[in-house]
Predict the structure.
Amino acid sequence: MSANTTLEKENAELKHELRQLKISRHLERFHTIFESSRLPSKIIGPDLKIIEVNMALVELLGYSLKEDIVGTRIIDYSPVDQHEHWEILQANIWKKKTPFFKLETSLIRKDGSVIWCHITSILFPERQGFLGYSVIEDITDQRLLKLHKEEFISVASHELKTPITSLQANLQLMSRLLNGETLSKEKMIEMTRNAEKHVLKLSYLVNNLLSSTRLDQGHLSLDKTSFILAELIEDCCTHIRLEGKYHIDFTGDPAFTLFADRHKLDQVLVNLVNNAVKYAAGSFEIRIDASHSDGFTKVSVSDFGQGIAPENIVNLFDRYFRLGHDNNKNSGLGLGLYISAEIIRLHGGQIGVESELGKETTFWFTIPDRAETI
């Protein structure tokens, strides 16, 4: 063997050792980051067997020790109907040698609960071959919000369609009757009131939709003025009086002046009165009370219907939570009480509900005399 050949061989061996040392250093740094990361992570082999996990993933899956998970297969934590997700990942990462792969699927925690995850996997070299490194992001809340929004759009479309269809039918009938010159004054008044009722419902729905959008964008602001509370209550109950079957009784100082955003408090009161009608069932009496104490005005809206089940009360002011006439979660847009709570919060007040099954329900809110807008 010539001196040049020997030198070339030694040079090649040295380069190989340097490469191995560089890889080793990179791997050591990688494992340090892997262990300390707050992002749930795992390392799996071509057979989907879990080789290593960090504590963030252990906690995400509801376990306490790494040993509980290492040695199992990631597919063991997957619902049966989603095993194919991991089989697709397996084929892409190892068979097709795709260096980067994303996946959205669900995993089963130790307690049996299911979480939705966004999984990003990369292929990386190890001494034994290629392994898969995955970062797992819990997207359960985002997915539920997405499902709520999809359901909301469906419900909103239905809720808007009903008054529009009724309004259109009223106008068509009025047009036919007018053309035929057979319209009585009483019939005209009835149809006009019916049309006005549906216009008010449309206005109510559109106001809630607009307020929800402004809340999302952080653009919901207050325009405070001084006004007489009794006049606001009188105006906001017009749509209920058009029904002709509910009696609204106001108790409080008829001359009391409130400093707040009149338009938005009108929206709150309309929401609360609508809820009183919804929950009142066979009761046709609604009581609105206003009192003032310690720098706050408290307004309450009470009905004397079936009440609200305790398990539903805690969710009433949540976005998209819909409670029907029979205490089942199935009616309305699920925005009214949520928006009302945000409006009262902006005023610096509080909102709440008290209910007793079979007797009555009272929604209430407080407004400070002259608090700065939050």
In short: The CA atoms of residues 87 and 304 lie 58 Å apart.
